[in-house]
Amino acid sequence: MTTSRIISSETLVLFADLQEGIANLPLTISPARLKKGVRNLAKLAKLFDMPVIVTAVPGPDGKAQIMPEIAEELGPLPTHFRSTADSFLNDPIAERIKSSGRKTILISGVATELAVQLPALTGVDLGYRTFVVVDACGGTSERTEQAALSRIVAHGGSTVSVMTLAGECAGDFREPKAQAAIGILFDMAQPETSDSGLSLAEMKQFVRNHFEDFVNRKKSEVALKNFSADFLDHDEPMGEAIGPEAAKTMMEAAYKRWPDLHVTVEEILAEGDKVLVRNSWTGTEAATGQKIEFHGFVLWRFAGKKIVERWATLTPPKNIAGA
């Protein structure tokens, strides 16, 4: 009997190109979210005894550094190398899939447009039920990834999420396996965290609070709390500066020059371990009484719940006419 449901005993997982040099490219999914999806898909594979096949493209040294989350959950697995984007065009991989006896394939990988789309299409042609696990994949752009997913669905493939898989495979919630699966479901539902250990929302609020305290409230001492000991400012006015003391000294000089210095956060974005801010500044020169304004973009990188790097582009201060 055909069914639209995913039956774990009929399913295998294909991880494609989740390797250094590919999985860390700029993608439609944040690094933290991709790692979480891959890890939890590996957990589900182990929990429900789904065979796992890891494929990769060999680097110049003939090797590939696979995303460690897979081995951390499943133990060491062989990496099946291939020389084409489509895993099914590699005879040993195709034979490994066939010999498993599983007719449903869950595909996770990078990039969705190639290493995921092509085996999904070929799998359909060969009579397999193929599902792209969307929160364990990454595309190179939203437009091209959506085109790939649309093509897969149009030709008989499907999409699914790790969260859905966890709930679908769980079965009776009273059983221990089901409870473990529900734990995975809830983990996927948690707010996204960056590699810094902070959620994206927490990083953005951290930066807002930092500007408010460090600039508007003239609390230079917050530099010692918010910046890491090895904080690197790539664009400090006097050149690269290392450590929070340099940032504290720089801002104290700014307080003296513009006693009413004020910054307004106009726009703020966060992805991965970084926060980008567009802001506007105003102040009154203490020596002349001249009011000035300038604008800027600041990029902060986080690690260990602190700011570890800063890049900035600021416009030259401009006198405000009539002030």
Corresponding CATH architecture of the largest domain: 3-Layer(aba) Sandwich
Task: Supply the number of helical segments.
Answer: 10
End-to-end C-alpha gap: 80 Å
Name the CATH superfamily classification of the largest domain: Isochorismatase-like
The total of beta strands comes to: 13
Structural class, by secondary structure, is alpha/beta
Shape: elongated
Q: What is the domain tally?
A: 2
Largest sheet: 7 strands, mixed
Question: What is the quaternary state of this protein?
Answer: single chain
Strand content: 25-35%
Low-confidence stretches: none
CATH class designation of the largest domain: Alpha Beta
CATH topology of the largest domain: Rossmann fold
- Reading the helices and strands in chain order gives EHEHEHEHEHEHHHHEEHEEEEE
Radius of gyration based on Cα positions:
25 Å
What's the rounded overall pLDDT mean? 92
- The helix content, as a percent range, equals 25-40%
